[in-house]
């Protein structure tokens, strides 16, 4: 006999309607879940989803990420309801406290937009006016000191702008809100502690999979691609570089009719560990296409920018008819493109393939042509061209790895081009191609310049002088020199 007496088993009474609606709700939810995640989930047999090195902690992570997605959807629903209830009413209610995702967890990855143009930021408030160092402004009886209550209050309101962007401060400036020092300090304290909390959470997430090929967020992205049917299976990793990991996948069906997914795809995942990208700044920071955007972006966005750059550059090349991977889709820092190779075997790099001297000569002529097209038609310099980034497939050379490519007017564009030329010349001269131009001739042939210096040092100096001239011109006239824009016809070398 239980010393505390028998438990009271009378059931709580509730109305039939309640039960009915709850059941209905459950059914609806189940239906929805089933639609989103069919019973038999076709999962790639890649090393990151199933396979021998199965890791339950990362499965847990995956589950948590999925849960987060659900929570976000829940919140979106809340927001819709909130809007419906509030309508145009002057007094509004807020469901903020019922939201599942803490505002700090909902980082930029929640947006399904792959790229947001940040060049124009309509939301940036004007700089708050501050009183100068001397502590007062105005003269005579119009003098206002920095201790003035109104000025101080406004200043505090304006300073809220400095809180983390996720911290919702409302439109205090627009309302001419005056915050007392006490309130401002309390808010500041809160903003900082929240920021720290979020940082801790984040750190945990990143570190838990530091040794894995891809982080949980990327895994979720890939998982979604397979789940949506766009990719059939992700078979495995082709390459792990310093800055990217490349996977092979079999293509599936596109959601839209007009788009055809290639039978085999390469997935290039730009690594989100930031260290490796630091020394690449110079490629993008000085690229005027990205100039204004660079400084305002957080590191995660900068990595997405590399992926975006590769996509744009590949598209330009595709349009010019240069053999290169075809872009399938860009999702954040993951670029899906057509696979160069067959049956999961990637085409060999030019450095690894043994070609007959005839093929070698053919390859050289083709590359010379492609470099000219790249410069003239695509207005691009590859900037990492070498036998490592050229694949031999189908009896011709394919160019890959163009995330770092820049326009010739880039402040170091011509230096990059010269380096490319040196790599190409040296490779083909070593391979015994008699027709191969030396690096200086190649540079002139590609760019259309006519630099006559006959030694490396002078040549390099002239290149730098040209770059400087262009920079000065841009400074003074706001536009680049015409000779850079491909107007000065470089002779097209044909086979
Ligand atoms: P990284 O910046 O790491 O050098 P790459 O774009 O050069 O990135 O890709 C690394 C390797 O992955 C390449 O050397 C090539 O072997 C392979 N690879 C990349 N893209 C493709 C593709 N579209 N088809 C086949 N193999 C590819
Ligand atoms: Mn490469």
UniProtKB/TrEMBL annotation:
PROSITE patterns: RIO1
A GO term from the CC aspect: cytoplasm
Xref: InterPro entries: Kinase-like_dom_sf, RIO-type_Ser/Thr_kinase, RIO_dom, RIO_kinase, RIO_kinase_CS, Ser/Thr_kinase_Rio3
One Pfam short name: RIO1
EC code(s) of this entry: 2.7.11.1
Keyword set, alphabetical order: Antiviral defense, ATP-binding, Cytoplasm, Immunity, Innate immunity, Kinase, Magnesium, Metal-binding, Nucleotide-binding, Phosphoprotein, Ribosome biogenesis, Serine/threonine-protein kinase, Transferase
GO biological process, one term: defense response to virus
Cofactor(s) in the UniProt record: Mg(2+)
CDD domains: RIO3_euk
Subcellular location: Cytoplasm
Alphabetized SMART domains for the sequence: RIO
Region (Disordered): 103-140
Record GO terms (molecular function): ATP binding; metal ion binding; protein serine/threonine kinase activity
Catalytic activity: L-seryl-[protein] + ATP = O-phospho-L-seryl-[protein] + ADP + H(+); L-threonyl-[protein] + ATP = O-phospho-L-threonyl-[protein] + ADP + H(+)
Annotated ranges, domain RIO kinase: 203-448
Composition bias, Basic and acidic residues: 116-127
Family membership: Belongs to the protein kinase superfamily. RIO-type Ser/Thr kinase family.
Oligomeric and partner information: Interacts with CASP10. Interacts with IRF3; RIOK3 probably mediates the interaction of TBK1 with IRF3. Associated with 40S pre-ribosomal particles.
Protein name: Serine/threonine-protein kinase RIO3
Species in which this protein is naturally found: Ibidorhyncha struthersii
């Amino acid at each position: 006999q239980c010393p505390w007496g028998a438990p009271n088993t009378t059931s709580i009474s509730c109305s039939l309607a309640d039960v009915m609606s709850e059941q209905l709700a459950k059914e609806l939810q189940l239906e929805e879940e089933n639609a989103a995640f069919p019973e038999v989930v076709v999962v790639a047999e890649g090393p990151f989803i199933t396979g021998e090195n199965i890791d339950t902690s990362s499965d847990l992570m995956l589950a948590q990420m999925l849960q987060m997605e659900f929570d976000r959807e829940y919140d979106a629903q809340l927001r819709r309801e909130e809007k419906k209830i509030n309508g145009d009413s002057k007094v509004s209610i807020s469901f903020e406290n019922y939201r599942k995702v803490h505002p700090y967890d909902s980082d930029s990855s929640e947006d399904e937009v792959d790229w947001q143009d940040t060049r124009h930021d309509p939301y940036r408030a004007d700089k708050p006016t501050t009183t100068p160092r001397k502590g007062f402004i105005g003269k005579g009886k119009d003098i206002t000191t920095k201790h003035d209550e109104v000025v101080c209050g406004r200043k505090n309101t304006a300073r809220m702008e400095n809180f983390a962007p996720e911290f919702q401060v409302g439109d205090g400036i627009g309302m001419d809100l005056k915050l007392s020092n006490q309130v401002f300090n309390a808010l500041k304290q809160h903003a900082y502690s929240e920021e720290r909390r979020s940082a801790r959470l984040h750190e945990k997430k990143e570190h838990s999979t530091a040794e894995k090929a891809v982080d949980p967020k990327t895994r979720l992205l890939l998982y979604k691609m397979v789940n949506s049917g766009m990719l059939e299976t992700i078979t495995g990793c082709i390459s792990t570089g310093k800055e990217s990991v490349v996977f092979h996948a079999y293509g599936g069906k596109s959601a839209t009719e007009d788009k055809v997914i290639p039978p085999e795809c390469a997935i290039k995942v730009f690594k989100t560990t930031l260290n490796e990208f630091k020394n690449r700044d110079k490629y993008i920071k000085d690229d005027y296409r990205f100039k204004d955007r660079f400084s305002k972006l957080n590191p995660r966005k900068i990595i997405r920018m590399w992926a975006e750059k590769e996509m744009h550059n590949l598209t330009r090349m595709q349009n010019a008819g240069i053999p290169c991977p075809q872009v399938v889709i860009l999702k954040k820092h993951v670029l899906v493109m057509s696979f160069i190779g067959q049956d999961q075997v990637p085409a060999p790099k030019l450095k690894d393939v043994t070609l007959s001297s005839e093929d070698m000569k053919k390859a050289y002529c083709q590359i010379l042509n492609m470099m000219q097209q790249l410069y003239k038609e695509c207005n691009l310099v590859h900037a990492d061209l070498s036998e490592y980034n050229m694949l031999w497939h189908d009896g011709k050379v394919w160019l890959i790895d163009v995330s770092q490519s820049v326009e010739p007017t880039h402040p170091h564009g011509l230096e990059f081009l010269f380096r490319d030329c040196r790599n190409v010349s040296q490779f083909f001269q070593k391979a015994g191609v008699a027709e191969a131009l030396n690096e200086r001739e190649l540079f002139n042939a590609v760019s259309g310049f006519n630099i006559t210096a006959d030694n490396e040092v002078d040549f390099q100096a002239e290149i730098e002088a040209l770059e400087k001239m262009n920079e000065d011109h841009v400074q003074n006239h706001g536009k680049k020199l015409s000779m850079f824009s491909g107007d000065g016809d470089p002779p097209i070398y044909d086979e």
